[in-house]
Specification:
This protein has helices at about 5-10, 10-15, 20-35, 35-55, 65-75, 105-170, and strands at about 175-180, 190-195, 200-205, 215-220, 225-230, 240, 250-260, 270-275. With about 280 residues, it is α+β, with helices and mostly antiparallel strands. It folds into two domains: about 5-130, no CATH class; about 175-275, Sandwich (Immunoglobulin-like). The protein has an eight-stranded antiparallel sheet with strand order 5-4-7-8-1-2-3-6, covered by helices on one side. A hairpin with a 2-residue loop joins β4 and β5 (about 225-230). The chain is rod-shaped and about 130 Å long. Residues about 95-100 have low confidence and may be disordered.
Length: about 280
């Protein structure tokens, strides 16, 4: 499994800082148990933050001790007298912890807060970058899906064209052109028919779109009697379709019927027709 996306997402840094929501923190903990690499990365991030804190720690200057002793004398009222050998007498007085804070403690607290703020800013930066990364990935996925759909449509058109060329050049098939039956209309379709086997194909790619609930129906006529040759797909009008077997046809026509077809053609809804040569 490729764990790089998880490691580079910035979620591990937020987890170490305790800034992840409980549910997402639980996911990180589960990943640590499943994948040693994730646990190692979490440990490394924690070590890096700790090392940064140590580097930012402030070492007190040499005169801090003198200032500390003077502060003790001022607060306790006890003078720090020198020892017989010239060294100062050590004065130890038990005080509440709050009164024992030194300058070093203040510096350490300030450094810790500085590190915390720096780490928080860095975590926010990583979080924003992670959100942008997720947005970019979602956009790429949408574009990839759209490209796949376009490629699929293009492949479909190429396949239909190849089938058209194959049918057009097949000497066993007769091509019948169907033209508009109404004036001022320029609709057309082509039928490819094997007179011997009865195999029949229709190319409806030049037919107009029709309303929802309507469907094209192909007919062939024998001695003036119309016979159903099948329904033309409403969702696949750009592709050549195989229709019902047909033998002895003298004419082909297409009508617009209610979706699902009709047992007899609606003559006033005939759109194209063509005789067998």
């Amino acid at each position: 499994m490729d764990l790089s996306c998880i490691i580079q997402s910035g979620d591990l840094e937020l987890y170490v800082l305790g800034m992840l929501p409980p549910d997402e923190a639980g996911k990180i903990e589960a990943l640590c148990k499943l994948f040693p690499e994730i646990q190692q990365e979490v440990d490394a991030i924690a070590a890096t933050f700790e090392a940064g804190a140590m580097q930012m720690a402030v070492t007190p200057s040499a005169d801090v001790k003198e200032k500390l002793m003077a502060s003790i004398s001022a607060k306790t009222g006890v003078a720090v007298a020198p020892e017989k050998n010239g060294s100062p007498v050590k004065v130890v007085e038990m005080k509440p912890v709050a009164e024992q804070k030194s300058s070093f403690s203040k510096f350490a607290i300030a450094a810790s807060w500085g590190l915390f703020l720096l780490a928080g800013a860095f975590a926010v930066y990583l979080y924003n970058g992670n959100q942008q990364l997720k947005t970019d990935v979602a956009t790429l996925q949408q574009n990839a899906t759209k490209s796949e759909q376009q490629i699929g449509e293009l492949a479909k058109e190429v396949s239909s064209y190849q089938l058209y060329r194959q049918l057009k050049s097949d000497p066993s098939l007769t091509t019948i052109a169907l033209a508009s039956v109404k004036p001022n209309e320029d609709f057309q379709a082509e039928v490819f028919w094997n007179k011997t086997s009865g195999e029949l194909f229709i190319d409806p790619s030049y037919l107009p779109q029709i309303p929802i609930g309507k469907q094209y129906q192909l007919w062939f006529l024998i001695d003036g009697k119309p016979i159903d040759a099948g329904m033309i797909s409403l969702t696949n009008t750009a592709s050549i379709q195989k229709m019902k077997e047909c033998k002895g046809a003298q004419m082909f026509a297409i009508t617009v019927e209610n979706e699902g077809g009709s047992p007899t053609p609606t003559m006033e809804q005939m759109i194209v027709a063509g005789k067998v040569g």
